[in-house]
Design brief:
single chain, 337 residues, mainly beta, 9-stranded antiparallel β-sheet, 5-stranded antiparallel β-sheet, globular
Length: 337
């Protein structure tokens, strides 16, 4: 009974409007109707949309620099932004998932309705896709320049079977003119063994503002080795990739960027599913079938036995300027510590 009451209190927190932040703190974190709003000095920095009746998976939107400039695509959450595109409805600003999660237990297996997917597709929103359902939102913690909140997710098949459980902790940190969003992820094969399928469709994803994409925009992206754009970056391994360009706000142009960091503690080094139409994603699970040139000889899939856990750490850096002036390499070095 006590456990039931505790869970209900967690869930109720996600439905009611609950505000956290001392009078002396610049932070204000509001949890309302399954959405966590992070504000600093009365400026909304981002919202984490964790729960919703038709939500396929949690995502962050809007995502702004500390000075209030948007860096990710607004569609389909909001329309009317410059150079707006309406492709890939599943690429909602910032998210984490994978495109083929395969249960190894017969009782958890279902026939996939999506071409090329053996298990459950949590990447796309095609008919038959899975859902990452947030079941608990914890109480925010505020420490100086960081606000943190912990959540629990269930990865469910299209019929509602839970095939994977997840503990996800989100930290939002203001670093001068930059913002860093950390995701500490623990995937738990609590219901049975899991295999992460060999697909390019994954995993720590960002869809950049349409203004700063390479194709049809004014943007550029670079990896930690200085390699540039799709021909040199797609399918290769690197510690980070940064996408930057100029965004118009209130009639003025601002140079901004958004980078994804792979933490050195991750046992699985990602290949980058980075496209010139605006997608930037770190994929630790793709192998030979994914088409990634860095792992074209690797056929060994990532698996978890029942009860095993996989921990992954990523961060998204929102910054002013290009890769050099935004000190992306320095921010990564600090994150790595």
């Amino acid at each position: 009974m006590l456990r039931f009451v505790f869970t209900c209190l967690f869930f109720a927190c996600s439905l009611a409007s609950v505000s956290f932040g001392a009078e002396t703190s610049p932070w204000k974190v509001v949890v309302e109707n399954g959405v966590v709003t992070f504000s600093y000095n009365q400026q909304v920095l981002t919202q984490y949309v964790a729960q919703g009746e038709k939500l396929a998976k949690p995502y962050f939107w809007p995502v702004l620099t500390p000075s209030g400039v948007p860096v990710t695509r607004a569609w389909p959450m909001k329309t009317g932004y410059p150079k707006e595109t309406t492709d890939h409805v599943h690429q909602k600003s910032i998210w984490f998932c994978h495109g083929d999660v395969i249960p190894n237990e017969p009782e958890l297996k279902e026939k996939s309705l999506i071409k090329g997917v053996e298990g459950v597709d949590f990447w796309s929103e095609a008919p038959g896709h899975g859902r990452i359902v947030c079941t608990e939102i914890g109480k925010p913690e505020i420490q100086e320049n960081t606000a943190k909140i912990s959540t629990k997710n269930e990865w469910r098949s299209s019929s509602g079977l839970v095939i994977l459980q997840e503990n996800r902790t989100i930290s939002v940190t203001v670093l001068g003119s930059a913002l860093r969003i950390d995701l500490d992820i623990e995937l738990v094969a609590s219901k049975g063994g899991i295999t992460f399928g060999d697909t390019k469709e994954g995993s720590m994803g960002v869809r950049v503002s349409d203004e700063i994409k390479v194709k049809g925009g004014n943007g550029t992206y670079l990896n930690a080795e200085g390699k540039k754009n799709e021909k040199e970056v797609w399918g290769y391994q690197s510690d980070w990739v940064d996408y930057y360009g100029k965004v118009t706000k209130d009639g003025k142009e601002f140079e901004v960027g958004i980078a994804v960091f792979n933490h050195p503690s991750n046992k699985l080094k990602p290949c980058w599913h980075a496209r010139e139409y605006g997608l930037l994603a770190a994929n630790p699970f793709g192998r030979s079938k994914s088409g990634f040139p860095a792992v074209k000889e690797n056929k060994e899939l990532v698996t978890l036995k029942k009860g095993e856990q996989l921990k992954l750490k990523y961060a998204v850096l929102v910054h002013e300027g290009d890769t050099k002036s935004g000190e992306v390499a320095k921010h990564f070095a600090n994150y790595s510590k």
